[in-house]
Amino acid sequence: MTSPILRGLIMSSVLLPSAIVSNFAGSLVDAVGRPRAITIGFCIFAFGAAIQAGSIHIAMFIGGRIIHSNNVSLNLLSFQERLQELYSRKYTLDVSEMALAPDGVAFEHAKVFNGSYPGPWIQACWCDDIEVTVRNHLWFNGTTIHWHGIRQSNTAEMDGVNAVTQCPITPGEEFTYKFKAVQYGSSWYHSHYSLQYADGLAGPMTTYGPSSENYTYAVEPILMTDWNHRCAFEDWAWSLRPGGKRPNMTNILLYGKGRYDTGNPARPIGQPLRYSEIFERRKRYLLRLLNTSLDSTFVFSIDGHNMTVIGSDFVTIEPYNTSAVLVGIGQRYHVVVEPNPLLAVPDDNHWVRIFAAEGCTAFPTKPDNRTVIIRYNAKNSDDPISQSFDINPICADEPYEKLVPKLRWKVDPPSNND
User: Fold this and answer.
1) Predicted structure pTM score
2) Which of 67, 124, 277, 292 could covalently link to 128 via disulfide, CB atoms 3.0 to 4.6 Å apart?
3) Angstrom distance (rounded) from CA 157 to CA 165
4) How distant, in Å, are the alpha carbons of 260, 266, 268, 269, 375 from that of 263?
5) CA-CA distances (angstroms) from residue 11 to 201, 227, 326?
6) What are the pLDDT digits (tens) for 14-55?
7) Residue of 194, 227, 189 lying closest to 363 (CA atoms)
């Protein structure tokens, strides 16, 4: 009997859609600066699972160049031998405490990776090995780091769940996580020790792979989060007291930045510059949306621009168009934006808005939803005067009927079903 994996490898006829080939190739070149091979049998199988039935046309990176195979048989053993050299991505994360003021208000108890918030962007290609050494410089607490959504196949001890898959990394010690990127898309990593990630221990990660839609440029991951001017541990302690209530959040950050209005002109605070993205017309931009909040679901929108949603979590989906995307805590969406505003504005500046979803947030009042600025003229530094779409930020997932996988996997019945 041929094994399921071998059956996946021995494919008599396959067709890789041209859009997936071009975007996958571009992603690999963008990520590492040169074409490279996809490695090991599992990943060849995964590659095979990401293609559709049709005439034979296989395109893969082998030995630094793209090899096409048309209507020929593949010697799989020889093929695998050429893919044995694994490409490993190595990172170091130093966990420490420091003061931050991401929205102009000083926060003395932040926990950060490598002295910044968010933490550094971890990048790899589909099927790469990833190694991350975490060094704990916290004063009092242990820590563990979780790789959100990563399937830890045969590496469960690397999942980073405190007191479940490993003991905490004690202050002054280090631990190296090693796992394989068997999925592609965007995600994030964060402390899984108590409430540390709410105080800043979070960062983006991307595994480059196929896409269901073409794009020109990819913008760095957009981390959206709720933010508090109090330590999460302090809030938790207060909530446990008699009469304690759910802690309130105080602001929204995008790219680790925000602005806070004290409501008192006599007590102004220094405001950081707003984050801006420069768009060029006749280009298409991939945005990677990540919600890294503690207690808030958000609705993402760009004034005057529709979006094409092409990915949900680690799944490439059939593209669909929308003017807003709801992103729950821990969720990720890939969207493509075409710089062709539906509503022209004189200054060519447009707000990126983050709406707090009603019923799924802990803000006592609605925070300012204007977060980031899209500019078509880099020399224009004015705040936009653009108007929002008529958006109802209810707490409801994206329509399930629209979340259709580009390439479906058939799951067999459980093997232990007696």
Assistant:
1) 0.80
2) 124
3) 5
4) 9, 9, 9, 11, 28
5) 44, 50, 38
6) 333 333 433 443 344 334 333 333 333 334 444 443 333 333
7) 227
Dihedral angle of Cα 72, 78, 79, 80, to the nearest 10 degrees: 150
The set of residues, in sequence order, having a beta carbon less than 8 Å from that of 202 and lying 6+ positions away, is 117, 118, 119, 188, 189, 190, 191, 223, 225, 292
Kindly state the greatest CA–CA separation across the chain.
79
Omega into 265 within 30° of 0, i.e. cis?
Answer: no
Instruction: Check if the beta carbon of residue 252 is closer than 8 Å to that of residue 367.
Output: yes
- Mean pLDDT for the chain? 81
What's phi and psi for 124, nearest 5 deg? -155, 170
- The Cβ-side half-sphere exposure at 321, using a 13 Å CA radius, reads 4
- pLDDT, tens digit (0-9, with 9 covering 90-100), for 172-222: 999 999 999 999 999 999 999 999 999 999 999 999 999 999 999 999 999
Number of alpha carbons in the 13 Å side-chain half-sphere of residue 322: 18
Secondary structure element (H or E) that encloses residue 337, with its range: strand 332-337
155, 159, 165, 170: CA torsion to nearest 10: 120
Cα-based angle 394, 399, 404 (whole degrees, multiple of 5): 155
| Cα 20-159-212 angle, rounded to 5 deg | 10
Question: Under the phi-then-psi rule, with left for phi > 0, alpha for psi from -120 to 50, and beta for the rest, what region is 40?
Answer: left
Backbone angles phi, psi at 416, to 5 degrees: -100, 20
